[in-house]
Input
Amino acid sequence: MAGIINGASTTDPNKILPMKYPWARTHYKKGVANNWVPEEVSMQQDVELWKKAGGLSEDERRMIMWNLGFFSTAESLTANNLVLAIYRHITNPEARQYLLRQAYEEAVHTDTFIYSCDTLGLDPDEIYNMYLTIPSIKEKDDFVVNITKSVFDPNFTTEGTENIQKFVHDLVGFYVIMEGIFFYAGFAMMLSMLRKNRMVGVGEQFQFILRDESVHLAFGADLINTIVAENPAIWTPEFKQTLVNNIKKGVELEKKYADDALPRGVLGLAPASVKQYVEHVADRRLERIGLERQYHVDNPFPWMSEIADMPKEKNFFETRVTEYKTGELDW
Ligand code: MN
Ligand code: FE
Output
């Protein structure tokens, strides 16, 4: 039977119709509906505030630098993972079509940090080396690289239960931990700046990236859940425990990163709340792929899902609360 993986002998990758996985099509269409490019966003206010002596506090400046430093290289890491490691193992054409869309969006995200560096006049050697020079950033990147080693082995195949487990293990590393947890302390920090009407250009770029990433994550979870449904023998208690342990380790690294980027907190944002948000988000991810919640904490930032759900055309400050779509993101 042709599944979403291991279908090479029975699936023609050029024949997309009829479709077997309509959810892949839905995510593709959502991605297209979110289309944007960084130049649409004005950086005028950001440039003035960034360059004005005393315009930003030292703590705000650090928080912004840490997030630009992490995201500037994380976006390329994600794009490389997709194209070099994941794509060749996904044999279904509509799922591949989505991966191509996602790869394009990662290119747009990479472009966003080029645009931010250019407009704010940042030193590229500083920003693009932070993944090496800042230990809390390096540890996150190293962790993802280490738990996704199997798929990068040129001899790796997804044949057999053990190899399918390895593949799902690595997909959880990419989609659930990297895109689903490691991006989210940064999203909360940068969107809290947007809410305060400070660095609104950078804030809006992060808002658009968040909206894209929530679709990447939803696709990743559907992909993982489909592989598990088609290969139920992989879903053993031991394997599930390994995944939970990886996710918990990811949460610890993300909380460490939050403490480093935001050591004292800034107006409207306490480090303890950011860490609680990371735990809340991790529970949502665990549930989405059929694993048990580990933290059981409330969402300290309900405004995060409001921002993510808002139609792109609407500016945060022009939108009244009553216009927000209700309900949480479809993670
Ligand atoms: Mn991205
Ligand atoms: Fe992504």
In short: Residues 62 and 261 are 6 Å apart (CA to CA).
